[in-house]
């Protein structure tokens, strides 16, 4: 082997050693979140898809962050775990100051925008869309961050298919004085629409809330569904002339 061939071979092996994941492996689908009268409500299903296979049925994607924030994520599950590790270090460092103050949701959201944008600039993005909500000093905050660092704040946010299918419902039915019960019903309606139309969604969902008193994650449960549509029994009903 001459010198040129040797350099080419070494370069190939070096490039192979530094390859990055081009596609996510195990992913979670939509997260939907809203502001309600007392704080923030968030919902996500428990599915984890290995490609197009619904491999896992008990994946939790809603996590409290510090004292004032709640995080939800869709996308690659292992990348979400990496983000949680970053946030654990951030909260630990903040607690070590012991100055009587703690990071609020705005600060955590800003940190996440920098993390996601930084990884995007390294061409090694974290394959997640994140929803960050929280309450501090009576101020409610709700925002999202995409995998390339695009971010915004709103009264209701959603990731994945939820951005297309759930937010139109929220625009019509959301209002700032929603009670906890009405907020849960609205989220269930959104999650049911996603279940019917998103192949990666399952009917086992989890809901979490955060208020001035702190975060609470509720036990997962199954949505009630209805599949007895008359069109399955007689596909020509309401469509005469098209068959």
Sum this structure up briefly.
With 243 residues, the chain is of the alpha+beta class.
Number of helices: 7
**Structural class determined from secondary elements:** alpha+beta
Q: Please, how many domains?
A: 1
CATH topology: Glutamine Phosphoribosylpyrophosphate, subunit 1, domain 1
Tags for this entry?
cytoplasm; alpha+beta; Proteasome_alpha; Proteasome subunit beta; 35% helix; six-stranded antiparallel beta sheet; globular; Glutamine Phosphoribosylpyrophosphate, subunit 1, domain 1; 243 residues; proteasome; Proteasome_bsu_CS; eight-stranded antiparallel beta sheet
Structure description:
The protein is α+β, with helices and mostly antiparallel strands and 243 residues long. It has one domain: 4-Layer Sandwich (Glutamine Phosphoribosylpyrophosphate, subunit 1, domain 1). Helix content is 35%, strand content 29%. The chain has 7 helices and 14 strands. The protein has helices at residues 3-17, 77-97, 105-121, 162-165, 167-173, 180-197, 230-233; strands spanning 26-28, 31-36, 39-45, 48-50, 53-56, 62-65, 69-76, 128-136, 139-145, 151-153, 156-158, 204-211, 214-217, 221-222. Strands 1, 4, 5, 6, 7, 8, 9 and 10 form an 8-stranded antiparallel β-sheet that branches. It is globular. The N and C termini lie far apart (70 Å).
């Amino acid at each position: 082997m001459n010198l040129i061939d040797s350099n080419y071979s070494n370069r190939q092996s070096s490039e192979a050693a530094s390859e990055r994941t081009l596609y996510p492996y195990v992913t979670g689908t939509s997260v939907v979140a809203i502001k309600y009268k007392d704080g923030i409500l968030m919902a996500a299903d428990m599915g984890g898809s290995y490609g197009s296979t619904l491999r896992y049925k008990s994946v939790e994607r809603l996590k409290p962050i510090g004292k004032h924030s709640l995080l939800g994520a869709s996308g690659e599950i292992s990348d979400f775990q990496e983000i949680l590790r970053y946030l654990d270090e951030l909260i630990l460092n903040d607690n070590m100051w012991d100055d009587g103050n703690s990071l609020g949701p705005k600060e955590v959201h800003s940190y996440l925008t920098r993390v996601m944008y930084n990884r995007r600039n390294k061409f090694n993005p974290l394959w997640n869309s994140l929803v960050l909500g929280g309450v501090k000093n009576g101020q409610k905050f709700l925002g999202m961050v995409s995998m390339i660092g695009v971010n915004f704040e709103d009264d209701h946010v959603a990731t994945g298919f939820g951005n297309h299918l759930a937010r139109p419902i929220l625009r019509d039915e959301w209002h700032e004085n929603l009670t906890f019960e009405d907020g849960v019903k609205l989220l269930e309606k959104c999650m049911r629409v996603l279940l019917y139309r998103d192949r990666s969604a399952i009917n086992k969902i989890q809901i979490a809330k955060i208020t001035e008193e702190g975060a609470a994650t509720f036990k997962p449960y199954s949505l009630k569904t209805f599949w007895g549509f008359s069109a399955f029994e007689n596909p020509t009903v309401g469509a005469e002339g098209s068959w």
